[in-house]
Specification:
The protein is of the alpha+beta class. The protein is 52% helix and 12% strand. It contains twelve helices and eight strands. A three-stranded antiparallel β-sheet has the order 1-4-3. Strands 6-8-7 form a three-stranded mixed β-sheet.
Length: 374
Amino acid sequence: MPSKADVKAWKAQLVAQAEQQILKLTDSDQFKKYLNTLAKFHRYSARNIDLIYTQNPQATQVAGFKQWQKAFNRTVNRGAKAIRIAAPIIKKLTPAEQKHLDTTDERAIVGYRYLPVFDVAQTSGEPVLSAKDFVKENLADHQNVTSLYNVFKDYLNQQIDLKVSEVPLATLNGAKGYFQPSTNEIVIGGDESDNALKLKTLYHEYAHSQLHGLKSAFKDRPRAYQETQAEAVAYVAMQNIGVDTSNYSLGYVATWAKDKAVIHSALSEIQQVSNKMIELSDGLTKQLGLQEAQKEPEHDLKKLAAQSLNKSYQGLQKQVQQATNPQQKLGLKNKLNDVHHEISNRTQKQLKAFSEQNPAIKQPEYNAAKTLKR
């Protein structure tokens, strides 16, 4: 059994490795990988996001061994290597400890333990669906992207100290939008034809308003630093709703990635605003009904004619065969099963009606002795 000194050294090494990986974020590709991790695990602390990113940059959803079994009906694959995340050790304070720490809090964090968790890719079992799957599917419709932009703009305009307005792109000198700190106003190119880019621009400028406004502690950051932060927040927000932003440039972070304290501060600031943005977006997508699976017209089976029902069945069979995404394949199989049941039910009703109309026709009696052997 390892000694306390060994365990302490191992924990320190784990954190040190995470810091070294974060310090390497000096180009767009690596930074995008980190932001992808941030978008997937926005409810985790900055420390745990760093730890997850360092150990498995491709991780998308993590949970403990038992949680996978009980909450998701999945099992961790044999030989899977655990990802370690930090969990606070909270202690109830005695009056003497409260006085020593100069606090009135009844409880305090006295340390951390590193718990093993596993990514969904390290498990097998029932598919795990999230709201993001439905949002991404629904936002394939450009009208829904526009609706999300409009409801987000309206939400911001309801705030006391922040306003959003639109002007023609031709008046913005090549920009898509800007944030004006002196008036705390966001201005967007209203005639931008790319709906996703328009939404991302609003996210970007909102990040500026939160990070670099006149009252912000970070308002004096260098221009390149500010732009990278705002673009990072916008990237995370778009990743969260499943909209592809791979064609949008993030820029380089080398200007501020050389100093450990600076980069951790910058990433912490990005995380804070990203979390707020994600929570806002989640609330707005629920409000718009985008976190619900859209009911396809052809899936209203009761109203389909027999020919259309059979055509739907054949089409779904082909889609199941061609599907490569396990979650998508399961959804198609469920739809196929529904169509199969409807066809079966209709056939049974037709047979019953036929037998009632033709009582003289009887089904042959079943004789097990006469059945053919295969």
